[in-house]
Design brief:
There is one protein chain. By secondary structure, this protein is an alpha/beta fold. It contains 32 helices and 42 strands. The strands form nine sheets. Strands 14, 15, 17, 18, 20, 21, 23, 24, 27 and 28 form a ten-stranded mixed β-sheet that branches.
Length: about 950
């Protein structure tokens, strides 16, 4: 990077930082007035909308007075007339020019050479960088940033700038506290200066004269170039001090005087009529001959005579800014080259060819544009404020602006620009990238008038129709038509109020697609939302909601997108987190209940069936069995069935009763209820219902219908008797973490099928229990019930799918290893019941939101489960214990609430006696599990715990593998 580039980069950064500080601390020196000039009231209204938008989004200082002044009475009065109109406005509002710092940006041109900016004005044309607030920048924003430091470098006065030139400089190089005027110039080689205005400097360091588009030789001969061959280029930026402003204002301080100076006949030019008299070498005779903005008229000559007498006594100091640069947004061709091939020249400014677009590719540039993945965009093309849908094809080196394409083909080197008209119609203007609208040429064809005035563009009822009709007109050679419109008239009749809403609509479309693409890639959605500094618009929220409501809950890809849309929306309104979890539940339920059907042929085959099952201990992969993770990635879990004190503590009893009723009982709570009404039996989703599990088991096993209103009388008649179903968890405290609730569900299904004399496979058994748990809306995983239903140590897994199909494979462990594990494995009760927490909601929510810690840990714990199985099958209990420790650390990463001071203290108190440690279940209380060091007994651990915790309930529970 050159010294110049480095200096400009840092200056650009400094200006941006200073401007950001200005927005937050308005007591810093800033402009009292920022005034834009406009060609007519319609353009002025558009500018005001842009300024109001920035005020509402805190993008410009609120304490500054902003005004947009159109040429009076809709007449073109020239940039000089517009300047006098500014002076009148400021004087009327401030009373004088003393102590007023005024920034004036002349922006009332037609932009004939870049017609796509005729409507919005070049001043609000895009600049290819993102502002600190995340918005796309425009020339106006860059003016406000780059000129923010100038206010502190001058006394009261007015800085006048041209609205189509972006200056890059350091404001610290400006120092003007004197009288008269100062011209801001930059040093460039004469080879560049020959295409621009150049200042000639006199011996006093003031502007001696103005040279316009002279050759290099002429510039040297006229003394405008220095010894290095550089010249002082006119940047179009000039400062007038307050005394000079007062002198100018006195020329128009009455209504009659103002009318004489500010009119179409005089049409004063700021640069020709106000600056020329300030040059020390200027003469009145030559002044009269200076090319006017309009025509030579007697009124102009009279005004020049008076202006000369007022202005010529002042000098114009030359302020050289170096290093400095300027970027001129001149023609459409230059614009396209700047946005594509030349972008590397300005990378140091943070500029990029792709701003706010869903497709960022090196071959073309896009600014605030949605581009379909199926669209083909030619190399070197520039898209701006567009929607390019479906299989649209755009040729090379095109400029496409403000239109919607839907499958059309656009030829190479073409400009396509859409405008809404004041009457609600639409026009799409089409011409060559190299065409000059001031000339009578279009795509190489000679026109009977300048392209700017040729009525060749169809006026249509919609943008889509306008694109189609304009392409048809192009194929026909663009004939002049009475019902068509020209570039000039379509600009003059444009509905400028539609520009910003259209840009916002496109921006919203891009944002919508970015969100959906991030969702489909399962990215960190919380970070995505945080990066959207101002949040997302109501339109985007509405479109996201519509998309979510459209998506199916039973198709995995759609399900995944749907839950994450709700997650994004929940970042702005928490109620959508409920929608996210409701979708997960309903998606699982929809798959689970597919196989549900009431079995009217089922009969009570025995008088009584009692089923006892062990509890389970979870070793590896816990949480990977939880929806929606298991549905999207499949789950992998290693667990074991264990008995407590030699008993299987989960018990379910099913027996016949003589009455035509169904009796449900919970021996744990002592609750028992007789049911004769089918509707109350079918309501199984209330988590506070002591019989929710019983009811779900009856539905899952086909004993009662899921929804059909068949009477209990008819059901019992079909069964051959009434039915009694009782559940009990024997001598295990609630919140144990040993999977008792799910295993109890498994015991219910097993007992009911045995009572009905139905033989089912293990997989069918697991499937029915899964169905049962989803009917209850528990939202949990499947490892607990398999842990109790299948004996021993096993690897339990599932493939990605909405409806989970569980595979259970016993681990091949030698008797020696099994015996060692039985001796070294130990359960410790923490003395505290696991408290109910929003644990499931938290962990699942973080996974759905793409939080890396959650996503990565869920993957790692599955790996750990597989490695645990490997170590156990190899007989390496020490290796298994170390993996148990690793899993414990992962569990704490996933859920910090799985431990607490009491749990940490228990583990710490026996640290020297154990090789491995882990919680049971979700943790936060209940049971803990440890692998003892070789030679350490359970009694050793019990003694240690009693020493530390006395009779608080912390104790070892005797267990053995089932």
């Amino acid at each position: 990077m050159s010294h110049k580039t480095l200096f400009l980069q840092q200056s650009y950064i400094d200006c941006t930082n200073q401007y950001t500080a200005l927005l937050e601390a308005p007591n810093l020196p800033l402009w009292d007035y920022v005034i834009l000039t406009a060609s007519n009231e319609e353009q002025a209204a558009s500018y005001r909308t842009q300024i109001q938008y920035r005020l509402e989004h805190h993008m410009i200082p609120e304490s500054t007075h902003y005004a947009v002044l159109p040429d009076p009475d809709g007449k073109r009065v020239g940039s000089g007339g517009a300047t006098l109109n500014v002076l009148r406005y400021v004087h009327e509002n401030a009373g004088s020019f003393e102590n007023q710092r005024i920034l004036v940006i002349h922006s009332g041109g037609d932009s004939k050479r870049v017609p796509q900016y005729s409507a919005c004005g070049k001043l609000f044309s895009p600049v290819p960088r993102v502002l600190p607030n995340g918005k796309r920048s425009t020339l106006f924003d860059e003016f406000m940033i780059s000129m923010s430091g100038v206010a502190a470098r001058m006394n009261a006065g007015m800085l006048v700038c041209s609205g189509d030139v972006l200056l890059l400089f350091n404001p610290l190089q400006i120092d003007f506290y004197g009288k008269g005027a100062a011209a801001l110039s930059i040093k460039e080689p004469a080879e560049i200066g020959k295409n621009h205005g150049v200042y000639r400097v006199d011996s006093e360091g003031n502007v001696g004269g103005f040279l316009h588009k002279k050759t290099v030789e002429q510039l040297q001969k006229l003394g405008a170039s220095d010894d290095q061959g550089n010249v002082d280029i006119d940047t179009g930026a000039v400062i007038f001090n307050s005394e000079m402003l007062q002198a100018l204002y006195q020329l128009v301080d009455t209504k009659e005087k103002f009318a004489a100076y500010v009119n179409e006949s005089t049409r004063l030019s700021f640069y020709a009529d106000f600056l020329y008299p300030l040059a020390s070498d200027s003469t009145l005779e030559q002044y009269y001959k200076e090319t006017p903005e309009g025509d030579f008229t007697p009124e102009l000559e009279q005004c020049r005579t008076e202006l000369w007498s007022v202005l010529h006594p002042y000098q114009m100091k030359l302020i050289r800014m170096s290093p400095a640069a300027f970027i001129h947004f001149g023609t459409t061709k230059e614009l396209r080259e700047l946005m594509t091939e030349r972008m590397d020249e300005f990378y140091y400014l943070g500029w990029t060819s792709n701003i706010n677009t869903n497709r960022e590719e090196a071959d073309f540039a896009a600014s605030n544009s949605y581009v379909s993945p199926n669209a083909e965009i030619g190399k070197g093309s520039y898209l701006e404020d567009c929607m390019i849908r479906n299989k649209s094809q755009i040729g090379e080196e095109c400029v496409i602006s403000g239109v919607t394409l839907d499958g059309q083909t656009i030829p190479a080197h073409t400009v396509l620009h859409g405008l809404k008209q004041q009457n609600g119609k639409f026009v799409v203007r089409m011409y060559g990238v190299s065409d000059n609208p001031k000339e009578a040429l279009l795509f190489g064809k000679t026109l009977p008038m300048p392209l700017w005035e040729a009525a060749i563009y169809p006026v249509c009822d919609s943008m889509e129709e306008a694109v189609h009709q304009t392409l048809e007109a192009w194929r026909e050679g663009f004939p002049i038509r009475e019902d068509a419109i020209s570039l000039k008239d379509s600009f003059n009749q444009a509905d400028l109020s539609a520009l910003l809403p259209w840009q916002e609509k496109v921006s919203d479309k891009v944002e919508l697609e970015e969100i959906l693409e991030a969702i489909d890639r399962k990215e960190n959605l919380t970070r995505l939302v945080e990066q959207m500094r101002d949040g997302i618009s109501e339109r985007v929220k509405g479109e996201l909601l519509k998309e979510a409501q459209r998506l199916s809950e039973t198709e995995l890809d759609q399900f995944s997108r749907k839950i994450r849309i709700y997650y994004v929306l929940s970042c702005f309104d928490e109620k959508y987190m409920d929608s996210c979890f409701a979708t997960i539940s309903s998606g699982i339920l929809a798959g689970a209940v597919k196989g549900l059907c009431y079995d009217a042929d089922a009969k009570m085959g025995k008088d009584q069936v009692t089923v006892n099952l062990p509890v389970r201990v979870n070793w590896g992969g816990g949480w990977s069995d939880t929806p929606p993770y298991c549905m999207e990635h499949g789950g992998t879990v290693l667990n074991a069935a264990v008995m407590l004190d030699g008993n299987c503590p989960i018990e379910v009893v099913v027996k016949k009763v003589d009455e035509p009723v169904i009796v449900l009982a919970s021996a744990d709570s002592g609750a028992e209820q007789t049911f004769t009404d089918i509707s109350s039996l079918q309501d199984s989703s209330n988590p506070y219902d002591p019989f929710a599990l019983h009811k779900a088991a009856l539905i899952a096993c086909g004993v009662i219908p899921y929804k059909d209103p068949i009477s209990v009388q008819e059901i019992t008649e079909n069964l051959g008797s009434g039915l009694y179903l009782s559940t009990q968890v024997i001598n295990i405290p609630r919140g144990s973490g040993l999977g008792t609730s799910s295993i109890l569900a498994g015991a219910c299904v097993k007992a009911l099928y045995e009572m009905l004399g139905k033989e089912v496979t293990d997989e069918e058994l697991y499937d029915r229990v899964l169905c049962m748990e989803q009917i209850m809306s528990t939202g949990g995983g499947w490892q607990d019930q398999v842990g109790g239903l299948a004996p021993g140590i096993k690897m339990v897994s599932s493939e990605p799918a909405i409806r989970q199909r569980i595979t259970c494979v016993p681990c091949k462990i030698s008797e020696k290893t099994r015996k060692e594990l039985d001796e070294r494995f130990c359960l410790i009760y923490s003395g505290q019941r696991r408290l109910a927490r929003n644990l499931l909601r938290d962990v699942v929510g973080r996974y759905v939101g793409g939080i890396e810690d959650a996503v990565d840990v869920l993957y790692e714990i599955q790996q750990t489960a597989v490695l645990m199985r490997f170590e156990l099958e190899k007989g390496n209990i020490d290796g298994f214990a170390e993996l148990l420790n690793q899993h414990w650390e992962l569990s704490k990463k996933l859920d910090a609430g799985c431990t607490n001071t009491c749990i940490d203290m228990i583990f710490h108190s026996v640290e020297d006696l154990i090789d491995g440690k882990m919680i049971c279940g979700a943790g936060g209380g209940g049971f803990l599990q440890v692998v003892l060091k070789k030679g350490v007994t359970q009694e050793d651990v019990r003694k240690r715990l009693h020493e530390v915790f006395q009779d608080s309930g912390v104790d070892v529970w005797r267990c053995s593998l089932a």
